TrEMBL record:
<dbReference type="Pfam" id="PF00005">
    <property type="entry name" value="ABC_tran"/>
</dbReference>
<dbReference type="InterPro" id="IPR003439">
    <property type="entry name" value="ABC_transporter-like_ATP-bd"/>
</dbReference>
<dbReference type="GO" id="GO:0016887">
    <property type="term" value="F:ATP hydrolysis activity"/>
</dbReference>
<feature type="domain" description="ABC transporter">
    <location>
        <begin position="20"/>
        <end position="264"/>
    </location>
</feature>
<keyword id="KW-0067">ATP-binding</keyword>
<dbReference type="InterPro" id="IPR017871">
    <property type="entry name" value="ABC_transporter-like_CS"/>
</dbReference>
<dbReference type="GO" id="GO:0005524">
    <property type="term" value="F:ATP binding"/>
</dbReference>
<dbReference type="InterPro" id="IPR027417">
    <property type="entry name" value="P-loop_NTPase"/>
</dbReference>
<protein>
    <submittedName>
        <fullName>Sugar ABC transporter ATP-binding protein</fullName>
    </submittedName>
</protein>
<keyword id="KW-0547">Nucleotide-binding</keyword>
<dbReference type="InterPro" id="IPR050107">
    <property type="entry name" value="ABC_carbohydrate_import_ATPase"/>
</dbReference>
<dbReference type="InterPro" id="IPR003593">
    <property type="entry name" value="AAA+_ATPase"/>
</dbReference>
Length: 271
């Protein structure tokens, strides 16, 4: 990674093309300003954490990047090309998969069925084309391979209903589904919320595995130790703006919180 600066106090300039980029996004809800000219860059093979207090604009930013909301102003680029997502399916079709905090898994279905939910594969030949029979065996085989590729060892049986799994295992299913189909970007919204220490560590390992596979990850989290453990860069939101973009190497957790609360300002914000 090459960084250049005009002076030591200026914002570093990344010379690579971002996989996903937002420029000066604005989103209002009546008199409420959700985003006030926010920019963001996600580069290949990195974990970008987004942190900020409640109401800072984190969720609105993610929704704009993933098609759940349409920004009033600004531009979004994917691999350097402008994109205009009008619904979440548009972002998914472009290779951006999002795992929301509520997971959106189907408890009654098994692990394999959840991985292929909405993307079910039919059997080959007349059984699939005419009789529309699902390729259950093939999907289970692919599900096992995807879980193995991510290093998920706690889910040996893909025929188990998701309702029988622990919170961490359900999160693993949701992340595996995103990894299986998120060819460009995976967005994780509070993936360790309400999980115990052991299960949280398993999810953090999943995030590292995604990065090792070359899939860039956007991580939204309130858990600062988790952020500093896995993030390559940290985007800090404050009052609808980007307050700063820092790294775990350049700033401490205490400094990150100070920027997030407004107690400290640095010169690489969007203001």
């Amino acid at each position: 990674m090459t960084l250049t600066t005009d002076n030591p106090a200026s914002k570093p300039v990344e010379t690579r093309t971002p996989v996903l980029q937002a420029r000066r996004l604005v989103k209002t809800f009546g008199q409420v300003v959700g985003l006030d000219g926010v920019s963001l860059e996600l580069y290949p093979g990195e974990v970008l954490a987004i942190i900020g207090d409640n109401g800072a604009g984190k969720s609105t930013l993610i929704k704009c990047l993933t098609g759940a909301e349409i920004p009033d102003e600004g531009e979004i680029f994917l691999d350097g090309q402008p994109v205009h997502f009008k619904r979440p399916q548009d972002a998914r079709s472009a290779g951006i998969e999002t795992v929301y905090q509520n997971l959106a898994v189907s408890p009654a279905l098994d692990v394999a069925s959840n991985l292929f939910l909405g993307r079910e594969e039919r059997r080959k030949g007349i059984l699939g084309s005419v009789f529309r029979m699902m390729d259950t065996k093939g999907m289970r085989k692919k599900a096992k391979a995807e879980l193995a590729a991510l290093g998920i060892t706690t889910l040996q049986d893909v025929t188990v209903p998701v309702e029988n799994l622990s919170g961490g295992q359900r999160q693993a299913v949701a992340v595996a589904r995103a990894a299986a189909f998120g060819s460009k970007v995976v967005v994780l919204d509070e993936p360790t919320a309400a999980l115990g220490v052991r299960e949280s560590n398993q999810v953090l390992e999943l995030i590292k595995n995604l990065r090792d596979r070359g899939i860039p990850v956007i991580l939204i989290s309130h858990n600062m130790p988790h952020v500093f453990e896995v993030a390559d860069r940290i985007h800090i939101q404050r009052l609808g703006k980007r307050a700063a973009t820092i790294t775990p190497a350049s700033h401490s957790m205490t400094e990150a919180v100070a920027i997030m609360t407004g107690a400290k300002r640095i010169g690489n914000s969007d203001e």
